[in-house]
Write a structure and sequence with these properties.
Distance between the termini: 82 Å
Strand content: 15-25%
Shape: elongated
Number of helices: 5
Structural class: alpha+beta
Helix content: 25-40%
Number of strands: 10
Strand order of the largest sheet: 2-1-4-8-7
Amino acid sequence: VFTLSSLGMLIPKYFLLSYAYLLVDVSCLSCYLSLCFFFDSAVSKEKAFVDVDDFEVNIQFIGAISLSGIEFAITDAEQGVKAKSLSLKYPTPITEKLNADHHQKLSLQFSVNDVQGEAVSVHQSFIRLTNEETGSELFFVAEANEKDQYKVEVNLKASAGDTFNHQSGRYTMTLTVGDSLASSALVWKFGSVELSFPGTPAQPKAKLQYGPRKEIKHIFRVPEKRPPGVISNAFTLLVLAPLLVLLIGWVRIGVNFNNIGQGGIFSLLFFASFTGILLLYGYFWLASNMFTTLKGLVALGTPTFFCGRRMLANLAAAQKR
């Protein structure tokens, strides 16, 4: 009788396991397709687009900027007494000749307005002082307070050396105001001032951008003092003493040189090249240097290797006979 148990004995175990895995994969795929169909149907019934009235976007734009509340003053750096105070109106510059020395400071106060006349804060606001004789430019940043009123001060006493380099002369004053939301930057040359500083201006060092540079000379370290010749010779004799002991031992036990001829001409070449290597070591110890010794060692080591190999091969062949 053909039963299910006998069928299980005929079917390999790995086939049943593969069949079970296939059923699991088919079930998972069916569940995935069902969920995708359900969510796709649910989403298709909702609104696919958003109306424009559902949200707002705020766009900031300052537009054209102007200046108001402009006051320029020359005051004493220590006591704060104003030597000169002027109220300006943009874009009319100062026509009066102004003078200041290193005991005073320059100050400029102003407000930045948008198209509607309201005070606004801007990203950049600074004045530029340009020496009319040398063309050098100096920049001073204007800081704003909580009411968006800007003010910049130039302390001539504190900055006479580091900033102005004691360079007296007439300086042109230019105010620059700009912002990324403004339609255009505001650049206003509002006047000039004659500045006087004590001392002599330091001459700037000319920078060599192209051309030959100064030669860099490397100085090797002074070689250490060598020991006296007596010590060196004594050390050399101590090093050669084992070789003398070896030669005496060979004479006492009796060295057999009869088998050297069995190696053929390669025996003579081997011992000649080996002797040359020993002499090369001695020359390196006495007068040569490492680089010259390495070159000679390569030249002598190559024939020593090949001749020694052929000599040993000939001796082995002679012993087999």
